[in-house]
Specification:
The protein is of the alpha/beta class. The chain has 2 domains: 115 residues, Rossmann fold (3-Layer(aba) Sandwich), CATH 3.40.50.720; 176 residues, Dihydrodipicolinate Reductase, domain 2 (2-Layer Sandwich). It is 35% helix and 23% strand.
Length: 339
């Protein structure tokens, strides 16, 4: 039987979409068949840049009329995701949703309902799940090499203020959301991926030290997991420093501090050993493992399996982000799941 070719409509032809296109091009079973931009001229510029010859639109509904479209890639600014996912689900298209999924719990629930009703598959762009360091730490946890987990920590430290690549919509609450939603959700999803237990309680603080952001640029989030493990996530967009993404996991038999490991794994070990690997140490999308994300989706579609993280799984990451904002505003812990 001939191998299925999956036709993709790109919505939001920008920096991130370009990274996905490079991953699509590495496969012979994926092709871009529509590009939807804010303007047709913008879509055309993207098509020229990436050497794509396909119909161009400024309205997603035009691309969705093509029955041959299998997948819609939603790579637009955050505040546009919900409406576009609802349209794609209604048209019964599978969907790639770039992070964050959306900016409100109401939109999240509407998206979940639409995807369930349409019975389409989704994958959410928490691309660090395919980062080699995180995959290595997760394997060691699953194999029991760290023993019982005690504490985990992830930090998303990315000074966006005043940078030439920062867009105006990154700074506005209605289009960006919060520090966690802009980028810190990667850290929230990473800690969920590693601990692999439900978060049952969130306690958070937030602060601002710049007027260039309409929302608190720094959030500190403490987590309680269902098995008693505790954790911390920090997201800071106002720091004047190079990009840093820290990962620490401490267990009764062993511990990781980024790519350094110590414990009972190697007899005679007296200090941390450094493991050469690829760390999540860059905000440049060319560094991100989109190949793994795309492969996971296509393999799931071909095998009629659930891709991870899909919208249902990513919703738990989003709930932590929403709960953190609630906790900081109310000054008390918030239980999960959110109603």
């Amino acid at each position: 039987m001939a191998k299925k070719t999956w036709n993709v409509a790109i919505v939001g032809p920008g920096w991130v979409a370009g990274a996905y296109v490079r991953s699509f091009r590495k496969r012979d079973d994926v092709r871009v068949t529509h590009i939807v931009g804010r303007t047709v001229a913008g879509a055309a510029a993207f098509a020229r840049q990436h050497g794509i010859d396909c119909p161009l639109h400024d309205d997603l509904r035009e691309a969705l009329r093509d029955r041959a479209v299998d997948i819609v890639g939603v790579f637009t600014p955050h505040h546009l995701h919900a409406r576009q996912v609802l349209l794609a689900a209604k048209a019964r298209k599978h969907i790639i949703i770039e992070k964050p999924v959306c900016l409100s719990l109401r939109d999240l629930r509407a998206m979940q309902a639409a995807v369930r009703a349409a019975r389409v598959k989704t994958i959410v762009g928490f691309v660090l799940r395919w980062n080699p360091l995180l995959m290595m730490i997760r394997r060691n946890i699953a194999d029991g090499n760290l023993g019982r987990l005690i504490y985990a920590e992830t930090d998303y430290l990315h000074g966006l203020v005043g940078k030439p690549y920062t867009k105006p919509w990154h700074t506005m609450r209605k289009t960006a959301g919060t520090s966690l939603l802009v980028g810190g959700c990667h850290a929230v999803d990473a800690i969920r991926f590693l601990v692999d237990r439900d978060v049952v309680e969130v306690s958070s603080y937030s602060t601002s030290r710049t007027r260039e952001l309409e929302y608190p640029g720094t959030e500190l989030v403490m987590l309680k997991f269902a098995d008693g493990t505790i954790g911390k996530v920090t997201s800071c967009l106002e720091c004047n420093m190079p990009y840093v993404f820290n990962v620490e996991v401490f267990g009764t038999k062993g511990s990781f501090r980024n790519n350094q490991v110590a414990g009972d794994m190697f007899k005679g070990q007296t200090g941390f050993a450094t493991v050469p690997t690829i760390a999540p140490d860059s905000a440049d999308v060319s560094h991100h493992p989109f190949d793994g994300e795309v492969a996971t989706l296509i393999d799931a579609l071909n095998g009629h399996r659930r891709p991870m993280p899909d919208l249902e799984d990513a919703a738990q990451t989003m709930e932590v982000c929403f709960a953190a904002e609630l906790s900081a505003r109310r000054g008390r812990p918030v239980k999960l799941p959110l109603p």
